[in-house]
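seq:
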Amino acid sequence: MTVAEIKKNVDQKMQRSIDAFKNDLAKIRTGRAHTGLLDHIQVDYYGSMVSISTVANMTLVDARTIGVQPWEKKMVQAVEKAIRDADLGLNPATQGDLIRVPMPALTEERRRELVKVVKNEAETAKVSVRNLRRDANEQLKKLVKDKEVSEDDERRASDDVQKFTDKFVAEIDKLVQTKEAEIMTV
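struct:
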C-alpha cells in the first residue's frame, strides 16, 4: 500500500464516520416533526421485519405531526404498534387508514438530556476518527520499517493525516453546535 492510498483510504473512512454521525443525529428528535425520525423503525410484514418506509408512505401533516399511510389496509395496526413500541415517546392515533403521529412538546429537562445524548454521539464519532488516524499512522510506520518510503515522506503523510483528523473533528463539533441550537430552540 502506498502513502497516497493510505491517505485516500483514511479520508474516505473518516467521511463515512461523519456520515454515520449525521445519520445518528437525524434520529434525535428536536420537537419538530420530520419523517426521518421513523426511518429506523422495523415493522412485522408477513413474518419478516422491514423498515416502515417500505410498507407505508410518510408525510408531514403539519409542523408537529407526521402522517403515516400504509400501502395495505391490513398493515395499519402493525405499523401503529411498531411506532408505539419503538420507545420514541410517540403516541400514534389511527384515523381510518391514516396514522397520525403527533410530536409531544419537549420539556426543558428533556432538551438537556437530548443535548447530552448528542454530545455522547459526537464523542463516539471523534473516537472513531481518532482510531482511523492511529491505524493510518501505524500503516505509515510499517512502510518506513519495510523501507518502502523515507522517514520524511512518512512525517509529511502523518501531518496530512492529522490535518484530515482536525478537519473532521471540527466538522463534528460544528454539527453538534447546530443540533444543540436546534434542540434548545423552543
